[in-house]
Amino acid sequence: MKILVMPKPIEGVSRDQLLQHAAEEIQAVWQLYAQGICREFYTRANEAGRVVLMFESESVEAAKEALATLPIVPLVLIDFELIPLAPFTDLARLFQVPTEEPVGKAQ
């Protein structure tokens, strides 16, 4: 399962507080990458310095367990929004032949 991970600072936590832990946090994310859990990572174009991660995990719970290994988590400086993703299959509707007349069409 792909999971979009959007880290968000906890209210009242300064950018400087987060940056104090950046090196060890980046190393920990790299370890998750090496394990095949963190598959992609990006910087948000609309918010400088904000990161977005793409996880590959069995479940949201398993992704939470992986995130718990990050050094910044026990310091309670950051929170995460986890969004599970699934393949978009509604495109198939574009290729279906209509089976009945549209509602309200006069005959």
Euclidean distance between termini CA atoms: 48 Å
Overall geometry comes to elongated
* SSE class: alpha+beta
Q: Quote the average pLDDT.
A: 89
Instruction: State Rg.
Output: 20 Å
- Largest beta-sheet details: 4 strands, antiparallel
Along the chain, the helix and strand elements come as EHHEEHE
- Number of alpha- plus pi-helical segments: 3
State which percent range the strand residues make up: 25-35%
List segments where confidence is low: pLDDT < 50 over at least 5 consecutive residues.
Answer: none
Number of strands: 4
Spatial sequence of strands, sheet with the most strands: 2-3-1-4
The oligomeric state of the chains shown is: single chain
The helix content, as a percent range, equals: 10-25%
Written description of the protein model:
The chain contains 3 helices and 4 strands, in the order E-H-H-E-E-H-E. It has a 4-stranded antiparallel beta sheet. The protein starts with a strand and ends in a 22-residue tail after the last strand. The mean pLDDT is 89. The longest helix has 13 residues, at 22-34. It has 107 residues and is α+β, with helices and mostly antiparallel strands.
